[in-house]
Every structure is written in structure tokens, then in C-alpha cells.
Backbone:
């Protein structure tokens, strides 16, 4: 967010702040929802690829503004698929554990995100990713090539992360991309 505030186009930072506000409290909400179905996040064991993935996204978000924009657009887009995936994973976990899924907080949490939140985040940034601005009198221009590089760097980080999860689960990705 701080990085994109340096753009002449202030709409990017405004949209990212809106997204962050919308996510405020969600970590606590998700933690409680998982606890309801028997998973205590405080008892987790660190999964290094996740730590590395978050560090990489943080690094991209703090880099030059157009790169940060591209990286965040890519992760917001993937968030839709991630919520769909975790919706199904929790459904299975609840089913196998004999825990009701419908009406529970964990399903409601994913429903909320799939039914518009993440699509809204993606669409909110989409308005800026195709800009290719000339030098600006105040602030930096959006540079389309740099936006694309940022998005590809984030996609690469996501592929590595998901690849590590597939490996842990002992399954091959359905669509190997490398
Ligand atoms: Fe959220
Ligand atoms: Fe999001």
C-alpha cells in the first residue's frame, strides 16, 4: 500500500486500503471457525514454504509500485480459487469427521469470500493493471510491463507454494505448469 501511494494514480492505494479494511478481523474469524471444527491454529507446525511464500509476496508488495500492483492483482485473482478450494477441503474434513458443515462458521467464511469479496478485490485492481502512463508531473506512472513482471513473479511464488503443498499431500498437480 505504501509503495503504491507513490503512484500518480492514487486509486490503486485507495483500493488496496479498501481491501485491507474489508479483511480486518478475518484472521480472527477464520481461526474461530477452524476451532469450531476441531483445528487449533495455535497448535500448528510451521510449513516453511508458506513462510517463504508470504515473505516473497511481502517483498514484491514493498518493491516499486507497478510491480506491487501486478503482484497483488495476481494474488487477489488467485484468492477466488483458493477460497473455492478450501471450501471443498473443509467440506471433506467435516464430512469425514461427522461434523455438520452447512450452517457452520467455516462454510459461512468461505461463502462470504466466494460470493463477492475476492471478486471485488480483483475487479477493483483490474481498472489499473492495463494502464500504461507517460511520465507524470506528480508521482510515478503505472508501467504495464512492470505490472506484468510483478504478476508473473507472484504467480511463480504461488506455483512454488502450491507445488510444495501438493508434494506434502503426495499428489501431483492436475495441471503441471513446469
Ligand atoms: Fe477475508
Ligand atoms: Fe482479497
Residues:
Amino acid at each position: 500500500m505504501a509503495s503504491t501511494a507513490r503512484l500518480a494514480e492514487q486509486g490503486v492505494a485507495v483500493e488496496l486500503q479498501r481491501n485491507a479494511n474489508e479483511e480486518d478481523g478475518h484472521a480472527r474469524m477464520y481461526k474461530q471457525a477452524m476451532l469450531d471444527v476441531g483445528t487449533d491454529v495455535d497448535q500448528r507446525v510451521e510449513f516453511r514454504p508458506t513462510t517463504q511464500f508470504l515473505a516473497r509476496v511481502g517483498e514484491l508488495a514493498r518493491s516499486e509500485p507497478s510491480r506491487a500492483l501486478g503482484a497483488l492483482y495476481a494474488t487477489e485473482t488467485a484468492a477466488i480459487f483458493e477460497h473455492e478450494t478450501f471450501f471443498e477441503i473443509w467440506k471433506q474434513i467435516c464430512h469425514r469427521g461427522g461434523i455438520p458443515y452447512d450452517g457452520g462458521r467455516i462454510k459461512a467464511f468461505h461463502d462470504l469470500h466466494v460470493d463477492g469479496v475476492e471478486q471485488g478485490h480483483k475487479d477493483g485492481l483490474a481498472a489499473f493493471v492495463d494502464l500504461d502512463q507517460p511520465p507524470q508531473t506528480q508521482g510515478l506512472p503505472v508501467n504495464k510491463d512492470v505490472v506484468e513482471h510483478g504478476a508473473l513473479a507472484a504467480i511463480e511464488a504461488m506455483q512454488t507454494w502450491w507445488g510444495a503443498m501438493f508434494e506434502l499431500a503426495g499428489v501431483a498437480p492436475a495441471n503441471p505448469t513446469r
